[in-house]
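A quick word before the example. In earlier lectures we treated sequence and structure as two separate objects. From today on, think of them as two lines of the same record. Here is Uricase written that way.
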Amino acid sequence: YGKNTIKFLRLHKEGKKHFVKEVEVCTHLRLTSAQEYLEGNNSLVIPTDTIKNIVLVLAKKNGIPSLEQFAIDICNHFMTTFCQVMYVKTYVQEVPWQRLHENGVPHIHSFICVPDGIRFCEAEQCRNGPLIVFAGIKDLKLMKTTQSGFEGFYKNEHTTLPERHDRILCGELFCKWSYGECKDFDFDCIWNKIRECILEAFSGPPDCGEYSASYQKTVNCIQMLVLSKVSQVQVIEVVLNNTFYNVLDMKNLGLTNDKEVLIPVEAPYGSCACTLGRKKFFEA
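And the structure line, produced from the sequence above:
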């Protein structure tokens, strides 16, 4: 049991310069006994209102140095404070506020919400067990207008989809990775590096791009690049929910439409998912 959707803004001031972190936190506990479920005995139950207040107090006292560290702080608090807690799991996601710039100059106290992907993390721990940390990015919308196709697929009497060697590749990406056992990582640096890998693998070189034979291949390219460049990542999951665009037939308007006006297909949409990890992690 636990408390979901604890939302708050943490404001930090360094002189005239302000820093903000707006987050949503979900914290769940498992106790050493199930007596509250089986017997209606609430003597070991930590009220969910107390859970909420603990999260807010930790934000006040410790700040949010990184999402991952804040989740770790929450897990550590419940494990060290309450002997009846057997397991704790905390999920934290961030509202994407970025510092506003005016003529290239960063503003000291103004921010803009930029929906270019939502950062999140999870931390979980069993008593006498290791602290495990996950992190990720979701709702990241990506598009490239060429260097994508889909050819040579299996066909039978139900196949109506034509082969395409030049199409728009567009989708909403969810990516989650595991660090394995928690160590003293620079979580902000690692997260930014993984985000750069995602964008690089999706788009290819800026002057020419890179051909994608399928959404599945793009998903694998993202995972392989992250695992090759970020040694701290042990397992990475990627889900790409696809958005398809159909070329609008404008012949009845007396116009030739050479893939200049396209209509998004709202539903149904495709989805590709894959989990990839290091061999040594799965063997362990």
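Notice the following. The first strand starts at residue 2 and ends at 14. We will return to this example when we discuss secondary structure assignment.
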